[in-house]
Amino acid sequence: MGVDGINVMARNFVSSDSQESKYSKARQVAAEARGQMANRQNSLLAAGMAACAAADPDGGI
């Protein structure tokens, strides 16, 4: 077996025929999920605050 056959680092460099790694794809999916969750939480918070403001007979005073 030659040096290229045992060189683990050779597989980690970008080339035109390389595919996206499972690790980078998983990080991308996780980041998208975190963003979606944050958007949902912010929407729920805004709706709750609006409901509280509408229910307050004194207008928040």
Could you explain the architecture of this structure?
- The structure is a single chain.
- With 61 residues, this protein is mainly α.
- It is built from two helices and no strands.
- It has helices at 3-6, 22-55.
- It is rod-shaped.
- The termini are far apart.
- The model has no long low-confidence stretch (mean pLDDT 80).
Give me the secondary-structure topology:
Elements lengths: L2 H4 L15 H34 L6
Instruction: Name the beta content range.
Output: under 5%
Average pLDDT for all residues? 80
Secondary structural class: mainly alpha
Note the main sheet.
none
What gyration radius follows from the Cα positions, in whole Å?
25 Å
Q: State the order of secondary-structure elements, H for helix, E for strand.
A: HH
Total helices: the number is: 2
What's the overall geometry? rod-shaped
Contiguous runs where pLDDT drops below 50 for at least 5 residues: none
Q: How far is the N terminus from the C terminus?
A: 80 Å
The tally of strands reads 0
Helix content: 55-70%
Briefly, what is this?
The chain is mainly α and 61 residues long. The protein is built from two helices and no strands.
Key attributes of the depicted protein:
61 residues, mainly alpha, 2 helices, rod-shaped
